[in-house]
Amino acid sequence: MSAVARSVRPFASRVLSQKLPLAAACRVSPATGFPRGSVRSFSQSPFMELKKYTESHEWIELAADGKTAKVGITEYAAKSLGDVVFVELPEVDAEIAAGEPVGAVESVKSASDVNCPVSGTVIQGNAILEDNAKFINQSPEGDAWIAEIKIADAAELDNLLDAEAYKQTVGEE
């Protein structure tokens, strides 16, 4: 070992064994602290957050239990309608067949039924929309869902469009 290496080695060992200040630690990627291969990604069940679409611009998102789902209108539909002024919510325990209206949305431009993508029983309507119908324009595919339903036949979901197929129908890339 050279003389330079012998003199630098103790200093380097002391520096590397000291704790870095917080600012320096923030610059280091958290993944670098893990040995290669020890960071694992988590996969989701195919039923987790399964979202499907209809050609008539409704969406349905399957809950983690695989038996219930939320139904609403797509962002494309919300933009097409314009400023929403009223939302008709479904009655609790109503039996609805696929393609039947589960609610309605009225805007300054027009009114439109919201058809249920699958058959089921209404668990609840989104109470937020009773007092704030305009919320549908802010979060149409998020918290502004129309109804939560208990699905009668999960196989009906297979007849619906996935996100990519829906985007193609509305001409988005």
Brief overview:
With 173 residues, the chain is of the alpha+beta class. 25% of the residues lie in helices and 26% in strands. 25% of the residues are buried.
**pLDDT < 50 stretches:** 22-49
CATH architecture call of the domain at 50-159: Beta Barrel
Query: How many DSSP E strands?
Result: 9
Percentage beta strand: 25-35%
Through-space gap between termini? 62 Å
What this model shows, in words?
It is found in: Mitochondrion. The protein is α+β, with helices and mostly antiparallel strands. It has a domain at 50-159: Beta Barrel (OB fold (Dihydrolipoamide Acetyltransferase, E2P)). 25% of the residues lie in helices and 26% in strands. The strands form two sheets. It has a six-stranded antiparallel β-sheet. The N and C termini lie far apart (62 Å).
Give the topology, please.
Blueprint: H1 3-17, H2 22-27, E1 50-53, E2 58-62, E3 68-73, H3 75-81, E4 84-88, E5 95-96, E6 101-107, E7 111-115, E8 120-125, H4 128-131, H5 135-138, E9 147-151, H6 163-169
Antiparallel strand pairs: 1-2, 2-3, 3-9, 4-6, 5-8, 6-7, 8-9
